[in-house]
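Morning!

As promised:
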Amino acid sequence: MAPGRVDPMTLSTVWHSFQSICKEMRHVIDRTSQNYLIAQLHDVSVGIWDGTGRTVAIPIGLSVQYLGGKLSVEYVLNKFKGDLDPGDVILVNDPYHGYCCHLPDWGFYRPIFYRGELLFFTLCRAHQMDTGGSYPGGYFPNAYDIHAEGFCIPGIKVMEGDKEREDVMELILNNVRWPQGTRIDNYAQIAATRVCEHRIIALLDKYGKETVLGCMEEMMDRTEKAVRAAIEKIPDGTYYGESATDDDGTELDVPVWVRCEVTVKGDTLKVDFSKSDNQRKGFVNCVFNSTYSNALSALFMFLNPALGEYHNEGSLRPITIYAPPGSVLNAQYPATVGASPVSMGHQIIEAVVSAMSQAVPNKAIGCWGKRYGHYIFGHDPRTKEKYVVTTFDMDGGAGAVRGFDGYEGATSIGTLGEVNKGNVEEVEMRFPWRTVRWEFATDTAGAGKWRGASGIHWEVENVGGDAGIATGSSDGEVVRAPGALGGEPTPNSRSFLTRDGKTERIRGHRLYQLKPGDVILKITGGGAGVEKPAEREPEKVRMDVIKEFISIDKARESYKVVIDPKTLEIDKKKTAQLRSQGEQR
Amino acid sequence: MKCCTDVGGTFTDCLVLDDQGEVHAFKSPTTPEDPTLGLTNALRKAARFFHMELPKFMSNVHLLIAHGTTLSTNALLTGKIAKVGLLTTKNFRDTIEIRRGYKNIRTSRFNVFVPPYQPLVPRYLRLPVEERTLYTGEILKPLKEEDVYSAIRKFKEAEVEAIAICFLHSYVNATHEKRALEICRREMNGAYVTASHEVLPVYREYERFSTTVVSAAVGPITAHYLRALEERLRDIGFKGTLYMVQGGGLVQSVEESARRAVSLIGSGPAAAPSGAIRLGQCINSNKLFSVDMGGTSYDVCLVRDGEIPTTDYNWVGDERIAMKMVDVPSIGAGGGSIAWINSLGLLQVGPQSAGADPGPACYGKGGTQPTVTDADLILGHVPADYFLGGEISLKTDLAEEAIRSVADPLGIDLPTAAMTIFTTVNSLMADEMTEISTKRGYDVRDFVLVVGGGAGPVHGAYLADLLEIPTVIIPRYAATYSAFGMLNMEVGRDFARSLISRKSLLDLERVNQLFTEMEIEARRVLGEIGVSAQQATLRRSMEMRYVGQFHEVEVTEVPLGKIGPKELDEITEAFHRRHKELFTFDMTEREVEFLNVRLKATARQEPLRLAEIPRANGNADQALKRHRPVLWSLPKGYEQTPVYDGTRLAWGHRVAGPAIIEEPATTVVIPGSYVCTVDSVKNYILSRR
C-alpha cells in the first residue's frame, strides 16, 4: 500500500465533494440573484477554507475576489476569536479590514461547526449593484479617499444563529441606492453559504471528522507536490514582465506601471513587484490581497492545466509573492481602490503572463483584450425608476496561446473568461438603451502566427432620460498589453459620443453627462498575438480576410500576405517576396 | 402490436408489445453507416420469434416508436453537418460566435490551451438583412427584402444546404422572420430552411439563435434519415404510425420532427424516465431516481410525483441548446470507462471509454487499458463464461494485465486495485446523484433507485448502499431500459410563448389569449396524428421570477380555463413556495414577474400492462446454479457465493445477499446488505436490511 494517511478512494471522493459543493453554491446564486453583474456576468466567487484559514477548495470564481481568500478568513478569525457560533454570517467589504479588493465586492463568511468545533469556513463574495459613495456603481474616479468610494463594512455579524440582525442590515442597506435589489442578492449569497454548511456537515457525518480532515491534509500535500513538480520543470532564472494602465483616473494620461520579476529556483517560485510604481492618488491602488490573487491566477495558467480545479493551500506553499507596502500593489489606508480589479488587477496578470511566457515559451500566452467597461446610471421613463447598468459586451476576446488563436468572445483576463456577456433582448427590456450594433470589428485582433481574438464594435442609443456614464472600468486607450514571442500586443480601444449629429471622442476614467438620443460607440482592441505574424500560414490569413476579421491592408502590412482584392486569392509570388524581405531585414 | 426501437452505440434494441400484453426484447448489432439496416435486422429477429415472415409481422405492427438520436447528436458532435447560411438582423451577425463569452464549458478556466470555438456557420455565411423589431413588438425598421434576395444569391453560390433565419425580438413579433422564411423557401429549392420563431419562440437571442442554427445544421441529415427510415419500413411492409422520440421526453410525428430537427437531439436518454415511472407504480412509489449505466455513460434522472424534469440549459458538444430537454445529467462512467492515475496520484475513472471497439481488455479485442468491466470481472461480479448469456467469453488474464497497469504505480495488489476502480466509479456516480438531488432540495434517501443499462444491475445495489437508499428496482428489461421507456412515453408536444411583464402590469387578457392560441395549435398538432380533443391532456405552466432576477422558476400549478385575478394570486403563492423549496428562501413582499407561458399537450393513455410471471412453487434454491468466488470485502478476501439462474426464478422468490443472479443479458449483484425479491412482473426488488 502506498504511504498516505487515507485510502485513495475516500480521498478522491472527499476531494471531488469539496469541488461539487462549490459548484452547488454558485448554482444557488445564479438562479436567485437579481444583479446583472452577478446573475448574468458571474461577478461572484465561492470557496472553502479550513478552521485555521487554510485554502481547501477554490474551483469557481473571479480570481481577484477569492484566490487569496485565506487572508480574509484569517482576518475574520482574529477579529472574532472565541466569538463565533454556528449560524453566524459575517459581512465584509473593507479592503483595509478584511482584504476585499474593492468596496462593491461584498463577502459573506460562514464558520462551519461540527459537534461544537469550528472546522471550516465558506465565503461567498459578489459584486453588488451599489455600495454607496459619490456615484452609483463602483468605478468612479477622483474620490477623496476610501470613504468617498462607498460604505466600508469592516467585518460584522449580519446573522446570528441563522437569524438576521435586522437593525444591522437596515443600517447597511440604508447606505446603498438599491436596497431592495441588494437584499435579494445578499439573501442569495447567504443561502449559498447555508447550502455549503449543510453539505459539509453531511460529508463529516458520512466519513467522520478524522477521515475528512485527513483527506484535507493529503489533498494539500499532493497538490503541493504537483505544483512543485510543475515549477521544477521551468528553467531556473529571473524573468521580467511589465504592463501599464492608461492613468490613475486623477492624474490623467500618465500611465501607471506594474513591473515584476519572476524568479524560479528549483521547485520554488517568487514574484517580486518591488519595481512597480508607488501608491497613487487615483483609484487604481491594489491592496495586497488583490495583488496576491491576480498573480496566482496568472501563474496557475502555466502550472499544469490538469490541476485547474484542484488548487488549494498546497499550491500556495511553493509560491511567494511580494509587493512593498506603499507600492501601488500594496496600498495603504486610506488610498482609493475602486478601479483596481481592472486597472492594475489586469496589469498584474499581464506582467506575470509576459514574464512566464519567456520562462516557458512552449506555453506562451498573449494578453487578452483590455477591459473597456463603464457604468451608466440614469432614469428609466418606463418604470419611473432609477437604474445602473454595466456590461462586458464590448470587451475584446482572448489572447492567442502557443498553438491556438485567441478564443473569440471570451472576456477579460482578470476573470479568464468566467464572466459572460449579455443578450440584446434582455438588455433592451431591462434598461432604456437600444443596441444599434454589436459585432466583431475588423482589424482589432493582435497579429501573430497565432492571432489574438477580435475586438468589438459596440454601439448603443439612449432611449431613456438624462443619464451619466462613468468610464472608470476601462483601459487600453493609450497603453497596450504584451503579446508573446514576437506577437503583436493588444490593439488600442476608443470610444465616441454622438449628440445631435456631432461625434466626439470620449475617454476612459472620466465622467460624462448623457442626454436622451445620445449614441455611444466603443471599438475595442482584441487579444494579443503569439509569435511573428509573418509566420502565420497564408491560408489562415486569407480566411481571416474572407471572414472580414482582417483587411487586405492588414494582411499585407502585418502578415506579409498579399491578397487579390477581386478574387480574394493569395498572390503567392508577391507574398513570398514580401516575406523574404522581412527575413533579410 | 406496438414496437419500440432504440438505436444505441453498440446494439439496436427492439421491444415488441404483443396483443396479449407480453413484452419481448430483441437485440442486433448497430450498423453505423446505415442505422436502418440494424433496425431491420432486429425486427427480423422479432418476426422470427413470432413465426412470421417480416412483411407479415410488420403489417401487424400498428405503432412504431423509434429514435435517431445517435444520428443527429453524433452528426453534431462529429461535425458531419450541413453547410448552413445564417440570415440575421444587420449589425448583429456575430451573436453565435461572441456567444455571450462562454469559453471553458467543461474544463477549468486556468486551462487556456483550448482551441477557440468554431461556430457552425462561418462568418462569411452569416449575412445581414436590414430590419429591426423592438422588444415591444413594434417595428423600427421594415424588412429590406433586397437584402434577403442578395443573401440568397450568395448562399446559392456557396451551395449552402440549410438556412437559419434569426432576427432580434422575433419571439414577440415574427412578421419579418415569416416573410424572409417565405422568400427563402420559395427561392432556395431543396434547402432546409428554418427560422428562430419556429424553433424556439422565447426571448434571449443567443440561446434562440444557437438552437435554431443547430436545428438547421442537423436538419438535412435528420430529414434524410427520417425519409429513409419511413421508406425502409414501408418496404418491409409497415403500414402503421411512426413516431420519433424527442429530447423533451415526448414522442412526435415524423413530419414535425423533421421540421424541428433539433428536437431529436438528446432523445437517447430522454425515454428512460417514462419507464421508471411505470416501474415505480409496481411498488406504489412516485419518487424515483432513474439511472442508466451503459458502456460509456451514466445517465441520471430524478423523477418526482410522476413528473419528468426538463431543463433548457443544455450543451451538446460545444453547442448551446435552449430547447426544453429531459433533465438527464450524464457523466462519463460506464462499463467501458478507463481507469487512470492523474498528476496528483489519484486514481480516476473515465470519462475516456474503451467504447464498444476495442472494448474492455477482457473482451480480447485488443483493448489494453483497465476498465470498469475488467474490475467487475476480477471481483467476480460478472461471470467470465456467461457474459451476455455467453455470447462474449471474457478473458480474465487480459483483465488482470490491464489492471496491473494501475495497481503497480499505486503500490497495491490486483484485488485491491479492482476494488478501488469499482469503488471510485461508484462514488463518482453517487456524487453526481447527490449533487442532482440537493441542487433541487431533495434528500436522495427518500427515493427509489430504478436501475437500467447493461452495467447498471452490477453496480446498482452498491450505489444505493452508498447513498443509503432503501429500495432498488432492477427491471426485467434492464438491458433494454431505453426501449422500455419508449413503450411508456406520451405522445405530444411542448409549446411556449414569451410574455414578459410584472404581475401588477400583467394583461390577463393577453395571458388567456396566449394560452388559447397554444391550445388551438396543440389540438391541430395532435389532430394531425389522430388524437381527438377528448383524448388530449393539456398541462399549463408559467415561468416566473422576482422582479430583477435573471432566472425563472417554472410553476406548474396553473389551472386550465380562464385565468382571473384570483387564479393569478394562487399561481403567485405557488411560485413563492417553489422558490423557497428550491433555494431555501422566498420574498413574499417582493413583486413577481412573468416570462414565458407554456403548454404541454399529450394524448391520454393507459399505463402499460405488464405480463405476470408464474408464482413460485418452493424456495429460490431450485434456481441455484452454482457457487463462484466473489470479492465482497478486502479484509475477508474472496468468498464462495451462491449464483442463481435468473430464468428459473419466479414471482415471490427471495434471495438474500450476498448472492448473484445471472440473466442472459445482465448480472444482478446483491451485496450482503440487501435482500432481493422477485415481483409479479419479474422485477428484482432489492431492499436494504
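Chain A has three domains: 8-223, 364-536, 537-584.

Hope this helps with the figure draft.
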